[in-house]
Amino acid sequence: MSAEKAVEKAKGLAEKGADTAEQVIETTANEARRRVRSAKVAVDDALDEGRDTMENAVACAKDMIRQHPFTAVAVVGAIAYLWGRIKS
Q1: How many CB atoms are closer than 10 A to CB 72?
Q2: Counted domains in the chain
Q3: Is 18 exposed, middle or buried (0-12, 13-18, 19+ CB in 10 A)?
Q4: What's the Cα-to-Cα distance from 29 to each of 38, 43, 44, rounded to whole Å?
Q5: pLDDT digits (tens, 9 = 90+) for 25-63
Q6: Residue 6 pLDDT exceeds 60
């Protein structure tokens, strides 16, 4: 009879351990999901901010070129000349 009690106690402990492990796994998975969602939001925000910054820079450059077209051509020519000198 004591062997049966030991087996029942072992089964009970095993079930308790399995339940605890399941809770830990579920908690860990939920935390991982939350962190992944948070990271995705942060990346999306950073990409949107970068896109906005790039669009503003392009708009600013277009405005400067429209206001000073000859200067813009001279600057591009100077950059091309220097780039060619560096490459050779």
Answers
A1: 14
A2: 1
A3: exposed
A4: 14, 21, 22
A5: 999 999 999 999 999 999 999 999 999 999 999 999 999
A6: yes
pTM of the model: 0.57
Give the separation between CA 58 and CA 52, rounded to whole angstroms: 10
Residue in the block written with tokens 């820079």: 57
Q: Which domain holds residue 63?
A: 2-87
Q: Under a CB-based contact definition with an 8 Å cutoff, are residues 72 and 65 in contact? A: yes
Q: How confident is the model at residue 12 (pLDDT cuts 50, 70, 90)?
A: confident
Six token digits for residue 35: 């962190």
Helix (H, G, I), strand (E, B) or coil at 88: coil
Please name the amino acid found at residue 41: V
How far apart are alpha carbons 76 and 84 in whole angstroms? 12
